[in-house]
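Exercise 7. Predict the joint structure of the components listed below.
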Amino acid sequence: MRKGSNVVWLVAFCAVLLAPLAVAWADPIEIQLWHAQRGPREETLNKIVDAYNKSQTKFKVVAAHKGSYDETMNAGIAAFRAKKQPHILQVYEVGTQTMMLSGAIYPVVDLMKDTGHKIDWSSYLQPVLSYYVSAKNELQSMPFNSSTPVMYYNKDLFQKAGLDRPPRTWDEVGEYTKKLVASGAKYGMTVAWQTWVMIENYSAIHDIPLATKANGFEGLDTELTINNPMVVNHMNRLKTWLDDKRFVYLEREYKGPEAAFINGDCAILMDSISAIGALKKNVKFNWDAAPLPVEASMANPQNSIIGGASLWVLKGHPKEEYQGVADFLAFMATEDMQILWHKETGYFPITKAAYEKLKAQGYYNQEPLQEVGIKQLMRKDPTPNSRGIRLGSFSQIRDVMNEELEMLWQGKKTAKEALDDAVKRSNELLRQFEKRSKE
Amino acid sequence: MTPSNAATSCCVSSRSAARNDPPPAVFRSSTSGALQENTQDTGKRTGGMEKRAYFSKTRLPYLLILPQTAVILLFFYWPAAQALFQSFLLADPFGQRNQFVWFNNFIRLFQDALYWKAIGITFVFSAATAVLSITTGLLIATMANRALKAKAAIRTLLIMPYAVAPAISGILWLFLFHPSYGVIAHILIHWFHIDWNPILNGTHALILVIVASAWKEISYNFVFFMAGLQSVPKSLIEAAAIDGAGPMRRFWVIIFPLLSPTLFFLMVMNVVYAFFETFGVIHTVTQGGPGGATLTMVYKVYKDGFVGLDLGSSAAQSVILMLVIISLTLLQFKYVEKKVQYV
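Solution:
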């Protein structure tokens, strides 16, 4: 009897000890997420992933950093070819067309439908969503980190030049930068990501097509149209400003331009809203952000377009795993997660609800800088010219545009020649992509 | 396998192969020495005549070279064959659709003015890098050889840059020469009033990547020249000195000809280096810009293949690169080696 009760106790004791292990042994299904976020952005992403993993026990999302955007996309492609692809792959906006035609994706709209998530897509920020929809207006990938360019200006240098507000039109930019240089600023303005800001966004804001076939949304036989008079004039103007130091070209990306703004060499910087964090940390003078300038003829400017990346779901996994993928994507889109993401990284929230809630909380009264971009993005409903860009080989096309613009800045070509050549070379890339993408 | 892997593996193996090749004289003597025993084992005596050696068992030699063969097949020939195959395809990146297009990728390349430009830049870049690093390496080696005090310490210090990865070397040089924050750029601009701007000026950018690439290779050249210099018989130099030859004359008439095998070897190695291993420098410093001024053939393989995802063209480019480097090395062996004096 006594012995028997000992055994019972022992068994009970072991059961208590092992119980947590038993739960752990019922392995959650792993969902792989490959991304290109680094530093504080990766930390925020990990917070979201952890929150999801703690919210349920069936699935476990594993986020892995795979290097730069190029490297992440290549890692995804190589993995897909080896049939070891992750469930979710973050791809930058220029890879959108390649992903859509890849035959390797599970469109988000279908995924959500198949897994029983009823999502009202109209409650999302349309200018963000519109970049990633198909010709049938169906969402293909989940918008993730989206930003847009704005104009930052050095208030101290403005004051010195007798200027009390940011320029609204490009003509004003010309006058202002002249005064700024005359009053001792080394340069008037500079730009980061010049093709994105000065060509892609310039075209969208002024509602002119960047390419035929609705910027490529309606067919692979699209051709670039950036050699139109408006863009040519704009580039011509920048070139004349370059010659008298009203404008300075520093590099294709952002480091040089941001450094020039931070150290006070440049009074105006046109750059992504994702620069806010770095500027807040490093700038030692008074500064502010304003919408990008527009032409005086443009009374009601269009929305600007986004850059950044989205999350693509890759096909080839068992059905039950996609339930977890869909749950996770839906979890990310919840208000709390979007607010966390927006507050910590500066990237746009993807739902209107999150934006409204932030507004109601008075967040933008404390952080007015954060609202400049979102207002510019939301000021009008997107048109076929401003909903996004859908070009194959887009990354190479940006290179071509950069190269040709550099020719212009070096004085080796006129604006017209440079843009004509950019169109010609890009069209060859587009034809090649078209050939490659047809059966 | 990806085309750029093929390109890299091609360069790696050609480089290591060249390194493993001892000079022919040594090769001959060591081979006959090693096989002498075998000759005696089989009991065949050839007296004073040239000895002929063979393995008695036919399977053993194949077994012995098997590991090396397997490595070469797996890491060189297989990817190279893949690249060759890929170069005839028009493929989408995910491998869902492949079209066999014969020589279309090659034809497209040779019709592309930018590809010719890249070839031109590659040759200028490689020649400049090789000449700069070889001459500097030779100069430093000659001087270090004469240094009396702290010879070992100086030599070790001079070898250090070789341990720096190309990408890091690129970052360091960019840090010095960046027009916005570079220290040396500041001196160039403000003291010498040179309008230095490698970000926008193609020539400046090319100079910067050449200097950064050459700097890294100087140490490598230095080590070989140092070894070469030490094998120059002292007696020859002393005899020349007694005959009244000055240091310059002694160098050009005695030392330099005796260094010619080293020089030749380094020429091959440096050109191979400049062709392939400078990727890291270009990637960190200019990414091929501005306006394609530093877009070398290797960098274009990467850009078209990995960024542009045009795998067919990228593979075709790596095949061309392979042919170029093979013919370049053959040419060097055919014409330059004749002038080399093996002692």
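Discussion. The first strand of chain A starts at residue 29 and ends at 35.
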